[in-house]
Amino acid sequence: MTAYLLGNLIGRFVLSYALIWLVMFLMLSRLNWRDAFKRTNHWTGLIATTTTFLVGLIAHGAGP
Q1: Exposed e or buried b for every residue in 41-54, given b needs 16+ CB within 10 A?
Q2: Quick check: helix, strand or coil at residue 64?
Q3: What's the pLDDT tens digit per position in 16-40?
Q4: Hey, is 14 helix, strand or coil?
Q5: What is the torsional sign of CA 44, 50, 55, 56?
Q6: 8 A C-beta contact, residue 17 and residue 40
Q7: Any residues with CB less than 8 A from the CB of 33 and at least 6 apart, and which?
């Protein structure tokens, strides 16, 4: 595994986590950042992060 590929995967996962955290922060936690971290690190938040990550990988691979 090259450093480029590893960096791409880690970066994509971090951005997926940030996107889910932002959704939790704005919609479910009522602008409480600590509650948003708790909700994101719960198993449902981690499933949402992994799903977002995999959808991004699939969408990127399906392109031309």
Answers
A1: eeeebeebbeebbe
A2: coil
A3: 999 999 999 999 989 999 999 999 9
A4: helix
A5: positive
A6: yes
A7: 25
- pTM (predicted TM-score): 0.86
Instruction: Provide the 10 A C-beta neighbour count for residue 30.
Output: 9
For every residue of 35-46, DSSP letters joined together read: HHHHHHHSHHHH
Length of the chain: 64
Radius of gyration of the chain (CA): 13
Structure tokens at 43: 């198993």
Nearest to 50 by CA among 40, 63, 37, 39: 40
